[in-house]
């Protein structure tokens, strides 16, 4: 089972180590990594807010600055949340290894590996998209320079940073330094978002796998070979199988509860900031469409789409967790429980009472992760957009 851990989770662990989130022990190198990243975060937010000092304030300027500042703040919150919960991550990975030890047959191993492989596949897709976006940003940023080399003009084509940043220095003289800082910002923020999102994806997909194992055990809790044995042997075999199904379900729920408990309060704050960030970026996208600024429109469209995809994925995954628990109840109800001995029927009844309740990922005890909640978030964001439009 150690091979499974290394095969599917090592890439994400290495990214977390590079960012100073995952560390086997607290060392000076890890501290320097975190300090350096913190300095980049502060400089990024500071150079954006400094634009208000050198430019005349208006609603359009506020929206342009905040449409970048809020996502940066959002990613910063995620980064420090994972730093403070780094020990919890290690505990959760230890629990994954312990779950591997309770697998009873090859089919259960295939189930857990299937879900680990699915998490790895989605992680690779996200890595590919991230790499493509980074290459696109580089090409977009360096496109005028590349054209000057291929098709030179009498005067060099204008080249400017994509983001609105203020360094209090002549931009033309330090253009390449500014572009380099901008690229480092985007690379760092994207890496943090990628690492934290895929880590949660790995943990939640393992929870899916444990729910499926519990379903598998319930589905095969009673077989014809058991029904034709003596009552005492039948009762012992069925009770033993129900017990193993209960163990798998308890570990699945316990693992999911550990994820919720660990990230409950921080992600409640992140959810609120995320809705505000979506509202501002959506409003900027509408403004850019009306102003027909193609470059700014593309940037705001990518930011808005990123918010929507992330929120939908989070709520959809929460819906899958709920559906997995409900599927478990359906399988239990459809078993041939009436053929079981009376003591086993009583065990089935208690188990049905346990898993018959709806199970959801809940943030801050108020926000439930399900598909309907995604529509609620969109409606809330649109309400904020309407407020900003009326103020303007």
Write the SSE topology:
Layout: H1 2-18, H2 28-49, H3 51-54, H4 59-84, H5 86-101, H6 106-150, H7 175-219, H8 224-227, H9 231-291, H10 294-334, H11 342-355, E1 361-363, E2 367-369, H12 371-391
Antiparallel strand pairs: 1-2
Helix pairs in contact: 1-6, 1-7, 2-4, 4-7, 4-9, 5-9, 6-7, 7-9, 7-10, 9-10, 9-11, 9-12, 10-12
3D structure, described in words:
- The chain is mainly alpha-helical and 392 residues long.
- The chain has one domain.
- It is built from 12 helices and 2 strands; from the N terminus they run αααααααααααββα.
- A hairpin with a 3-residue loop joins β1 and β2.
- The radius of gyration is 26 Å and the shape is elongated.
- The model has no long low-confidence stretch (mean pLDDT 80).
* Element-level helix/strand string: HHHHHHHHHHHEEH
Poorly predicted runs are: none
The portion of residues assigned to helices is over 70%
Total domain modules: 1
Order of neighbouring strands in the sheet with most strands: 1-2
Mean pLDDT: 80
Structural class: mainly alpha
β content, as a range?
A: under 5%
The Rg value, from CA coordinates, equals 26 Å
How would you describe this structure in keywords?
392 residues
What is this entry, summarized?
By secondary structure, the chain is an all-alpha fold. 81% of the residues lie in helices and 2% in strands.
